User: Fold this.
Amino acid sequence: MEKRNVKPADGRLGILIVGCGAVATTFMTGVLMARKGLAKPIGAFTQYGKVRVGRGDDKQYKAVRDMVPLANLDDIVFGTWDVYPQNAFQAAMYAAVLDERDILPVKGELEQIVPMKAAFDRNYAKRLDGDNVKASPDSSNGKGQPTRWQMVELLREDIRRFKQEKRCDRIVVLWAASTEIYVPVNEQVHYRLNDLEAAMRADDREHVAPSMCYAYAALSEGCPFIMGAPNTTVDIPAMWQLAEKVRMPIAGKDFKTGQTLVKSGFAPIIGVRHLGLSGWFSTNILGNRDGLVLDEPQNFRTKEVSKLSTLETILKASDQPDLYQDYCHKVRINYYPPRNDNKEGWDNIDIFGWMNYPMQIKINFLCRDSILAAPLCLDLCLLSDLAARAGRYGIQRFLSFFLKSPMHDYTVGEEAVNNLYQQHTMLKNALREMGGYEADEEMD
Assistant:
């Protein structure tokens, strides 16, 4: 069937990644290995997913790549920004997520990926101290921090130069860097695009995070932007207005990898069985650079807000006051260096059943953070590129399946969809629409 109003994925797709740490290097290495036939992109919906199209005798299950025109892995070109100057091979070895034998076959390609200088403000990530950062063009000694507006202009130049030098037809920008300190939404700065631009020009460093400069630069250069951390960044009306103005997709926020993936999939079990919830306590240990950054209370606050939002939209007191009134929900993350990227999450769930008798559920998930995040990076980049070619712009709610704290228009009381199975339905329906099929699956 002919694809409906979707431009073909011709030419090279540049993927510019903010951050060249564990997640980014695992993602890049996996793609480079997969296209050599030396690894498989396991966990990637775009590579393994199948979607039903049609009903009755016409029913078929089609691979995603056969439904819609996705960019081919061979056509991907990687670039990064990072506060540390090490190339992607050095960074992958340092991250110690992958075994050396799984990195060496693509060593040459990884060595060619050298991070551009990052737009960085140490106040937003106090635990990082790299010196591969942009300086103000007005600084005589080359050491002064650029203003927020200068950050935007420098990043736009980076995107244009990369696109030209690498002969890319399209670019997607993905944030895979650390969590910034919490930036509360401020109506005077974040609700209108003109106000946000004025704050950038005034170098308002309190309300304009560096990540907002990346997002603004990407969208202004006609690139979809994906926020893979819980940063406020594009989760503000001003950025929604910019995305609509330039007709580009945005997605966020925070990759849904370990504990929240479990929570968004398990909480519906409690809901559909009409069991009561007294409390849900989640704690994690993590030892990589992300764990180091989150050891700072202000940075953890950003993550906490993201992780806490999941449960409250699945098990709602307003729907079932007998079952979900005033339950206790707590989330903790502990930096524990010996674990490195091997995150461990514990969940203690106190439930009650027939005649209010209490029961408990314990979940212990020993996962590999970057191994779970890498396929999400691929899916989000390919699907955001697809969305742009399909003429979709603004918040891409169908990508909520991959994200911990899905974007939604809270200014009009819209509630985020956090139920994993509902998100899966949204994803499949969007693909059906872009593939020229009927979006025939209802989301209950």
Notes: The first strand starts at residue 13 and ends at 18. The two ends are 28 Å apart (CA to CA). The longest helix spans residues 369-389. The CA atoms of residues 19 and 82 lie 5 Å apart.
